[in-house]
Amino acid sequence: MTATLDLWPIGNCQVSALVDRAGRFVWGCVPRVDGEPVFSSLLDAAPRAGEGARGFWEIDLEDCAATEQSYLRNTPILVTKHTDRQGNAIEVIDFCPRFHRSGRAYRPVAFARIVRPIQGSPRIRIRLRPARDWGAEDAPTTRGSNHIRYLLADMTLRLTTTAPVGWVEDERLFRVERPLHFFLGPDESFTDDLRVALETMLDRTAQEWREWVRSLATPLEWQEAVIRAAITLKLCQHEETGAIVAALTTSIPEHANSQRNWDYRYCWIRDAYYTVQALNRLGALDVLETYLEYLRNIVDNARGGHIQPLYGVGGEARLEERVAEGLTGYRGMGPVRVGNQAYEQVQHDAYGQIVLSSTQSFFDQRLLRMGGVPDFEALETVGERAWEVYDKPDAGLWELRTKSHIHTYSAAMCWAACDRLANAAAALGLGERSQFWQDRADRIRERIEGAAWREDSKRLSATFGGDDLDASIIQLLDLRFLPPDDARFRGTLVAVEEGLRRGSYMLRYATEDDFGLPETAFNVCTFWLIEALHATGRVDDARQLFEEMLARRTPPGLLSEDIDPQSGELWGNYPQTYSLVGLINCAVLLSKPWSSIR
Fold this sequence. Notes:
Blueprint: E1 8-11, E2 16-19, E3 25-30, E4 36-39, E5 56-61, E6 64-71, E7 78-84, E8 89-95, E9 99-101, E10 104-106, E11 111-119, E12 123-129, E13 131-132, E14 137-138, E15 141-143, E16 147-151, E17 156-161, H1 165-170, E18 174-175, E19 180-186, H2 194-214, H3 223-235, E20 237-238, E21 243-244, E22 267-268, H4 269-281, H5 285-302, E23 310-311, E24 322-323, E25 337-338, H6 349-359, H7 373-389, H8 408-427, H9 431-451, E26 453-454, E27 459-460, H10 487-500, E28 501-502, E29 505-506, E30 521-522, H11 523-535, H12 539-551, E31 562-563, E32 570-571, H13 577-590
Antiparallel strand pairs: 1-2, 2-3, 3-4, 5-12, 6-7, 7-8, 8-11, 9-10, 11-19, 12-18, 13-14, 15-16, 16-17, 17-19, 20-21, 22-23, 24-25, 26-27, 28-29, 30-31, 31-32
Helix pairs in contact: 3-13, 4-5, 4-6, 4-13, 6-7, 6-8, 7-8, 8-9, 11-12, 11-13, 12-13
């Protein structure tokens, strides 16, 4: 079966897995999202279940004729129904336990599966083949009376099950006559009744997620799409530290054979800012609060110096990039990269995003911990860096590896850092500091308006003194750098739409970079366009474009990073936080108000 991005994420904010349309676990890392994949077959072109195939977990119904999948309402708990040609059927429930007990969060490095016969006399074969050394070899095993241990490089996983262990180990076909329970988790004896324990975990996990969803302030329209996007964004947070990863995968190409295969399982300051911004609009303050803890530690460790564009989920600074030779890549399109050398880049927009993420803490009375003067003083060191570098060249938000310019977007983010510090100081009653930062913001604004403006074409350029088109320039609207009725913004929007729009989709840019000309559109840029269309009065156009983007989602209701403008096929890492952020923001913006039905 050809790999696709029709993948259903499950997870518990510690580990996650992607389940394909056949109900197979094809991607999942331990002991956390940026760890080594125990399920890696998404990036392996070996034939399904054939000789040498590894890195997957499938529950294969003999002579299967149809498979249906759906989530339990308002949860990331997946239900897959398999029916064979004779009408025999099973139901498989997949989840990662997550709930509170004994005053603490319970989110183990564990994957749970429950198999229930629902019709006739179905026969199944269990194939659990964990990989180690990045897909290079099978995990050695040992066996007990009710368990199998899989010896990975850095940890051991134990499968405890009510199914016949020998039949699981031998991958033998057998009839399902009662519910079967599987718990792949820590190498510890399972002392409780496995059946009772997993059914209880299932109920409590569902309740936990439904309570979280219940707290969201969703728009009236497109609620199901927004809720699914919000749940998935939550899955992209490593709750232990608060870090938010850009995606759950590595090395899904931006388009076929592009070599644009990057590892997105890390916390980009930029992507995390957009994620908390979107979830804030839904009232999911828990994500903001835990992310701010992570961010404060990043700022403290920088000691007023350079802040990287990305870090590991534990705050690790070094993310050296290498190629995993044991995997051939998505549809055989390698390389598979581990780590991301962009951690060495200079990207000045990060300073603005740190301040923008933090500003709410000085105003929001709902927070358990509001920002105080010490927090403001720590942020001032970030503002100082923004002031020092705003008109210096950087790699920009698209992380160009061999080029640097003074990017208008980066400069505007540095302006936002100073502008929002002025707001925070005012909220704290620090009048002198408020004026200090406002003066700096005004000086940066004046420089941007002079250096980025193209008088001949009546628009802003993506670089100082240049003539570049880049979708990020329309983010000046979201930053409140320019209002929607400003002639300079409208002229810029016209130029960007004419130069970068391809049918219903938007490119990031249309010039050659390190890998040639981009071939796919960048999904979040299309959502930025939708926001700009709405703000400038083209409401019907905005709604139509939004509906088209909704139609491009995978069956689970999600989006990856990129889309082919010709075929509509999704490419790039998945699920992509940027894209889901755009979906949420546009739904909130475009929806009819709740007052329209009350």
